[in-house]
Inverse folding.
């Protein structure tokens, strides 16, 4: 390649990776590569550079449709940056999350993007000391991450509860995917504190993110002799289960029960009525997380913390409650 282009081997290497040379040189080298049928050997490149080109993406639970969309977006954005995503599912289990995170490190991924199930787990400190890690959603307590794209859960939960209160709701059920093994997740802590501040009667209930599981939990809630007037779900996927249970019980949304979500999955606007939800700008999260991870792996940036602000998407699933 160097002989064909009249460039040094170093310049050819930089051009093939799109680094430190002009666009004209990059195009010249790529054209020569195409003519010569040149293809880089990924194993040899990994041995020479110490990098595999693989990035780990550890999702909290891929039963959650929003996290599925996040994984698709990050996988495609990494590919645009000449990286490849190895996507794994923690299935909402802290022990499984720890095992998979350590396996990704041992398989020598260049970096790890994680939406943690247990952000307070002690193993994150040791893992982040040996691997560039970018956390999405919640910060990893005590760990020196390469970057964070964290949700302003305090503002998000306040926004949701104030919207329900302003519509006359006082008895509210909150459906959360958080298990008893991780009771200190920020969103759950904030929603409990905010309900107390606003004088709301709140019941916190664990619900899976699968449609069938969330529907079963919602049936138990709505079939109670004294059900709440509103259900606030910490995932739109869980809210879909409330819609299903309400329909099966002949309950109308929002006339008989109001429902709110928390992540603005694209399907939420297609429901009848559309789901009122808290939007975290998934496209912005994808861009920020990939940018921080690639920069950390390439050694070009210091640790950054990006706080994602929420926006309320009002549709038709929250109605005015008038106590009888």
């Amino acid at each position: 390649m160097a002989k064909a282009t009249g460039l040094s081997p170093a310049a050819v290497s930089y051009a093939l990776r799109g680094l430190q040379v002009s666009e004209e040189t990059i195009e010249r080298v790529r054209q020569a590569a195409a003519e010569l049928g040149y293809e880089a050997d990924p194993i040899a490149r990994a041995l020479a550079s110490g990098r595999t080109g693989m990035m780990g993406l550890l999702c909290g639970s891929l039963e959650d449709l929003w996290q599925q969309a996040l994984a698709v977006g990050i996988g495609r954005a990494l590919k645009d940056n000449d990286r490849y995503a190895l996507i794994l599912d923690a299935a909402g289990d802290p022990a499984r999350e720890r095992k998979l995170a350590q396996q990704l490190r041992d398989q020598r991924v260049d970096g790890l993007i994680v939406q943690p199930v247990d952000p307070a787990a002690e193993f994150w400190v040791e893992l982040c000391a040996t691997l560039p890690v970018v956390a999405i959603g919640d910060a990893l307590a005590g760990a020196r991450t390469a970057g964070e794209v964290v949700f302003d859960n305090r503002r998000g939960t306040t926004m949701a509860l104030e919207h329900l209160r302003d519509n006359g709701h006082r008895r509210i059920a909150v459906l959360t995917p958080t298990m008893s093994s991780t009771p200190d997740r920020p969103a759950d802590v904030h929603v409990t504190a905010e309900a107390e501040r606003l004088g709301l009667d709140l019941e916190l209930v664990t619900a899976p993110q699968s449609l069938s599981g969330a529907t079963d939990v919602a049936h138990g809630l709505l079939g109670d002799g004294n059900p709440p007037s509103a259900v606030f779900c910490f995932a739109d996927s869980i809210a879909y289960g409330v819609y299903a249970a309400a329909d099966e019980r002949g309950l109308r949304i929002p006339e008989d029960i109001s429902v709110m979500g928390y992540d603005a999955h694209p399907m939420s606007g297609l429901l009848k009525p559309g789901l009122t939800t808290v939007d975290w700008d998934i496209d912005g999260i994808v861009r920020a997380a990939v940018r921080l991870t690639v920069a950390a792996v390439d050694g070009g940036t210091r640790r950054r913390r990006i706080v994602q602000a929420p926006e309320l998407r009002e549709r038709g699933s929250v109605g005015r409650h008038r106590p009888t």
User: Anything to note?
Assistant: Residues 2-40 form one domain.
